[in-house]
Design brief:
The chain is of the alpha+beta class and 315 residues long. It folds into 3 domains: 13-94; 100-215, Sandwich (Immunoglobulin-like), CATH 2.60.40; 224-311, Immunoglobulin-like. The protein has 8 helices and 12 strands. The chain has helices at residues 13-49, 60-94, 204-215, 224-235, 238-241, 275-283, 285-288, 301-311; strands at residues 100-107, 110-115, 124-127, 129-133, 138-143, 149-152, 160-162, 168-172, 178-184, 196-202, 265-266, 271-272. Strands 3-2-1-5-8 form a 5-stranded mixed β-sheet, with no helix packed on it. The protein has a 5-stranded mixed β-sheet with strand order 4-10-9-6-7, covered by helices on one side. Strand 1 and strand 2 (110-115) form a beta hairpin.
Length: 315
């Protein structure tokens, strides 16, 4: 799976503005640093050449150099201030555009993503993935029910904290198709490092096709083995924590699994999606992600393989 996670490759309007001020800071501070190094080398060379003569602080060249340096520092600080003001204004203006609205809830240690709509039949939930159409402004309403988390997809925008009891939001407008990795950027417990999410930016047509698929209920099992796996799932503790739309499983504690096999990862980016990794995650969640809240469900080998066959068909 190829993805990007870097602030240096802007893929959104907001991060494009942030990248501008980063470049200005880099160039100004880089020039200042080089000048300081050059002056230091020059001073050492001059001191060595005139070791036995006393320096003259009142020399015209010294005064001119000092005034020039002060002026350069003031100009640099003024440039940084103006750029910062302009970038803040540009980000504010880009945030005023309306478009797609999503609700993102942080959990320990995964993400719930809800695509809201005035029509309840057009609302659905997924986990650890955000699909967005390219060049469309998006508002993410952020909330946390447990501890402080921080939403950060560096290619698209800066960081935004999710604080229990306080609703926040962040605005994105992706400008480039691709898969961009995000990360919780605020220490939130034992598995903070394994709390990733993926923003998948695609064309409007591909997004509409994906959304239409997500609105569908889970597919019926393709064969007897998958049918048995569905029965195992429904009669185990799994159905108490997870939702599979179109079935009796309506748990809200864990991620919605209606289309779990279409996702790029398991356990919030801890594992790439595959049948083998799915089996490992179900068999030993504490072995894969110690401290996670997913309990181990005791299954016989046959029941496990049947459940894997069923879940792998949920696309």
């Amino acid at each position: 799976m190829a993805f990007e996670q870097t602030v240096l490759q802007a893929a959104g309007v907001q991060n494009g503005h942030i990248h501008t001020i980063w470049l200005v800071l880099l160039y100004i501070c880089g020039v200042m640093y080089l000048l300081v190094v050059c002056f230091l080398v020059w001073a050492l060379w001059r001191a060595r050449k005139a070791r036995h003569s006393a320096p003259n602080p009142d020399a015209p060249g010294m005064s001119i150099g000092l005034y020039a340096w002060i002026g350069l520092v003031i100009a640099g600080l003024f440039g940084i201030t103006i750029t910062s003001f302009a970038v803040d204004r540009a980000i504010f203006q880009s945030n005023q555009q309306t478009g797609l609205v999503l609700k993102v809830t942080s959990q320990q240690w995964w993400w719930t993503v809800e695509y809201e709509n005035d029509d309840p039949s057009q609302t659905f939930r997924t986990a650890n993935e955000i699909h967005l159409p390219v060049n469309v402004p998006v508002t993410l309403a952020l909330s946390s029910p447990d501890v402080i988390h921080s939403f950060w997809v560096p290619n698209l925008h800066g960081k935004q904290d999710l604080i229990p009891g306080r609703d926040t939001d962040i605005h994105l407008q992706p400008t480039r198709i691709g898969i961009f990795r995000g990360q919780c950027a605020e220490f939130c417990g034992a598995q903070h490092a394994n709390m990733a999410l993926f923003v998948i930016v695609e064309s409007q047509q591909d997004f509409d096709r994906w959304r239409a698929g997500q609105l569908q209920a889970a597919h019926e099992p393709a064969d007897s083995m998958a049918s048995h796996g569905r029965d195992v799932f429904m009669t185990s503790a799994c159905a108490l924590c997870h939702t599979i739309r179109g079935t009796d499983a309506g748990g809200m504690t864990g991620p919605d699994l209606t289309h779990v096999a279409s996702r790029v990862s398991l356990a919030a980016g801890t594992l790439n999606y595959s049948r083998g990794n799915l089996a490992a995650w179900i068999t030993s969640p504490q072995g894969v992600k110690p401290g996670s809240h997913m309990p181990k469900v005791g299954l016989s080998p046959d029941d496990l393989q049947s459940m894997i066959a069923y879940l792998d068909g949920l696309k």
